[in-house]
Amino acid sequence: MLTKRIIPCLDVKDGRVVKGVQFLGLRDAGDPVELSTFYDQEGADELVFLDISASHEGRKTMIDVVEEVAGTLAIPFTVGGGINALEDMRAILRAGADKVSLNTAAVKRPELITEGADYFGSQCIVVAIDAKYDESLGSWRVYTHGGRNSTALEVKAWAREVVERGAGEILLTSMDQDGAKTGFDLALTEAVNEVVSVPVIASGGAGAGEHFPPVFQQSNADAALAASIFHYKETSVAEVKKLLDEQGVVVR
């Protein structure tokens, strides 16, 4: 049986970790290097670092911060934000990341997923999907540029396409639940899980340890990602893993 993963997320803007609600109202959550070290020591399975304003501002991910963070870690490390070409992927991986996360660039030019998978291997390519429910669509719509821009893409169709193009993993964020702290979007996670064969990381909505078991038990996520509840010490990775173990969810 595959073990489930708990993944803290560092949303980084201007060199600081920040957190908001539905991608807005950002507040400071600390230094990325200090937080990375803390989570590594605390037993996190992986870490995700997202330079959340890079695509919107039309610039590259902060390589120097990535190098600093990578230097503190013994766990797998995924980096996203402002990655638009193979050269950008190479720079991020050389800086110490284990995987790269593509979002806006993949929507703009889906061939980039295949290029990255062919060159570095599918295991290095994570496609991040920011999803928001659209009543007119009767499903979820894909958003880009840090949740600022809507697209014509339906989430399940896009998820299938990115896997066909070589993505080895999907980081699925519910914009409706992001920062709401009322629990993960189980319907969204389950819907995507049903149409893809690669691991799905559920993101958006964790507000307490009790929110983690359902995302594994009911929507069959492979991993759960959270930010503010870990950053602000509302719970810990160890406490979440203990709760999952008590409920029969196999964790690392």
TrEMBL record:
- Tell me the name of the encoding gene: hisF
Report the source organism.
Answer: Salsuginibacillus halophilus
A Pfam family cross-referenced in the UniProt record is: His_biosynth
One Gene Ontology biological process? L-histidine biosynthetic process
Q: Does the keyword Lyase apply?
A: yes
The active site is formed by 11, 130
Q: Which domain of life is it from?
A: Bacteria
Q: Name the reaction it catalyses.
A: 5-[(5-phospho-1-deoxy-D-ribulos-1-ylimino)methylamino]-1-(5-phospho-beta-D-ribosyl)imidazole-4-carboxamide + L-glutamine = D-erythro-1-(imidazol-4-yl)glycerol 3-phosphate + 5-amino-1-(5-phospho-beta-D-ribosyl)imidazole-4-carboxamide + L-glutamate + H(+)
Q: Write down what this protein is called.
A: Imidazole glycerol phosphate synthase subunit HisF
Identify which top EC class this enzyme belongs to: lyase
Sequence similarity: Belongs to the HisA/HisF family.
Q: In which pathway does it act?
A: Amino-acid biosynthesis; L-histidine biosynthesis; L-histidine from 5-phospho-alpha-D-ribose 1-diphosphate: step 5/9
InterPro entries from the xrefs? Aldolase_TIM, His_biosynth, HisF, IGPS_HisA/HisF, RibuloseP-bd_barrel
The listed locations are: Cytoplasm
| GO molecular function terms attached to this record | imidazoleglycerol-phosphate synthase activity; lyase activity
Primary role? IGPS catalyzes the conversion of PRFAR and glutamine to IGP, AICAR and glutamate. The HisF subunit catalyzes the cyclization activity that produces IGP and AICAR from PRFAR using the ammonia provided by the HisH subunit.
Task: Please provide, in alphabetical order, the Gene Ontology terms of the cellular component aspect for this entry.
Answer: cytoplasm
Q: List the keywords (alphabetical).
A: Amino-acid biosynthesis, Cytoplasm, Histidine biosynthesis, Lyase
Q: Does the keyword Lipoprotein apply?
A: no
What are the EC numbers? 4.3.2.10
Under the subunit heading, UniProt states:
Heterodimer of HisH and HisF.
